[in-house]
UniProtKB/TrEMBL annotation:
Protein name: Uncharacterized protein
Family as reported in the entry's similarity comment: Belongs to the FemABX family.
Keywords assigned by UniProt, alphabetized: Acyltransferase, Cell shape, Cell wall biogenesis/degradation, Peptidoglycan synthesis, Transferase
Highest classification ranks of the organism: Bacteria, Bacillati, Bacillota, Clostridia, Eubacteriales
GO process terms (BP): cell wall organization; peptidoglycan biosynthetic process; regulation of cell shape
Gene3D superfamilies the UniProt entry points to: 3.40.630.30
InterPro entries: Acyl_CoA_acyltransferase, FEMABX, PG_Glycine_Bridge_Synth
Molecular function GO labels: aminoacyltransferase activity
Length: 255
């Protein structure tokens, strides 16, 4: 389980991942909110509850079996990326704390990538610092020569892993978008191999928008053969201010 406390906009938030959502998981420190990420069952009446769909790769299966479940074209792209001398590297939380430029670079690339794609930039600096201190972050890169082509941030607890952020470098002048796509697929496969070989049991692909009507990113993730699953993200108010904020949110249309 990942269990950290961070401050954002003056509020104290207890972020919990890979939990069953029971009160025993709650940190003893006084907080304004508890944010349960990815809880399988919804047992909260006085909280903001959002249903989310996702895809899960079972890392307890054989690697060959996992690979065979990947889309045929994606398997071809992964194998081709290997032949193109694409390299992958993994940095753990200690590496990231000792070399802050690694995350600073990712943060800059992610800001450019999300702006280019027209999606919300959800990078949470305050939470990321606490995840690193707790040893819960992995950064992976696919590169060739001196150029990074894809980067992933994974949050994990030694058993469970979840893709938190992903960025591909399409802004390089004269960039080969097809090669970048292959490098990114290869990096995802390298993530699977790395986690599998270190005893992790499952990889969560970070959510999809729908099971019925898939968008482009959903289809990309689906091609890696993960099992469909639904879970809940739950925000519970704990302090007077936190409870009031949750109640106000629910009154104006929150769940």
């Amino acid at each position: 389980m990942v269990n950290v406390i961070y401050k954002k906009k003056g509020l104290k938030i207890n972020a919990i991942w890979f939990s069953d959502g029971k009160s025993g998981d709650i940190n003893e420190n006084k907080v304004d909110f508890i944010f349960f990420h990815g809880v399988r069952d919804n047992a909260y009446k006085n909280a903001i509850v959002n249903l989310q769909y996702t895809l899960i790769t079972d890392l307890e299966e054989d690697l060959d079996c996992i690979f065979k479940k990947i889309n045929k074209n994606f398997r071809y792209h992964i194998n081709r990326a290997k032949k193109e001398d694409t390299n992958c590297v993994v940095f753990n939380s200690d590496d990231l704390m000792n070399e802050p430029d690694l995350l600073n670079n990712f943060k800059k690339q992610y800001a450019i990538f999300t702006k280019l794609k027209g999606i919300d930039n959800t990078y949470n600096q305050a939470a990321m610092e606490k995840y690193m201190e707790n040893g819960n972050v992995i950064l992976t890169k696919a590169f060739k020569g001196n150029e990074d082509y894809a980067q992933h941030i994974i949050i994990c607890d030694g058993i469970n892993a979840r893709l938190l952020y992903s960025v591909s470098n399409f802004r390089t002048e004269g960039a080969d978008r097809n090669f970048i796509g292959r490098a990114n697929k290869y990096l995802h496969w390298n993530d699977i191999e790395y986690l599998k070989n270190r005893g992790f049991q499952q990889l969560d692909w970070g959510g999809i928008s729908s099971i019925v009507s898939l968008n482009g990113v959903d289809k990309f993730k689906k091609h890696f053969g993960g099992m469909e699953r639904q879970h809940y993200n739950i925000i519970e108010g704990k302090s007077f201010l936190g409870k009031a904020a949750v109640m106000a949110k629910k009154m104006v249309g929150g769940n």
